[in-house]
Amino acid sequence: KLFPDGRIEILDEDEYEQHGREMGYSEPLKHAIEKGLDELIGKIRKKESPFNQKEIECLYNEYQELLKKTL
Questions:
Q1: Nearby residues of 37 by Cβ (< 8 Å), 6 or more positions away
Q2: CA distance linking residue 71 with residue 59, whole number of Å
């Protein structure tokens, strides 16, 4: 979870561990999941798309304009 102040909290770690045991997650699968999480956290910290506030505001403004046209 990404909080407005920039803190990151990894959710459902217990469930991931439990499911991994129950379903026998392979080492390659666990590696891919961990790599994906690391990449995601990196994008958040670097404020890359879609975690760039300026981009978010621009897209939100575009959405608001489109919404006005449909009403």
A1: 10
A2: 19
Which residues, including other chains, have CB under 8 Å from residue 3's CB and lie 6 or more apart?
9
The pLDDT tens digits for 6-39 are: 899 999 999 999 999 999 999 999 999 999 999 9
Q: What token pair was written down for 44?
A: 């958040």
pTM of the full structure: 0.77
The two three-digit tokens of residue 28, written as one number: 């390659």
3 state SS of 42? helix
The per-residue b/e assignment along 15-42, b for 16 or more CB within 10 angstroms, e otherwise, is eeeeeeeeeebeeeeeeeeeeeeeeeee
Tell me the average pLDDT of the chain: 95
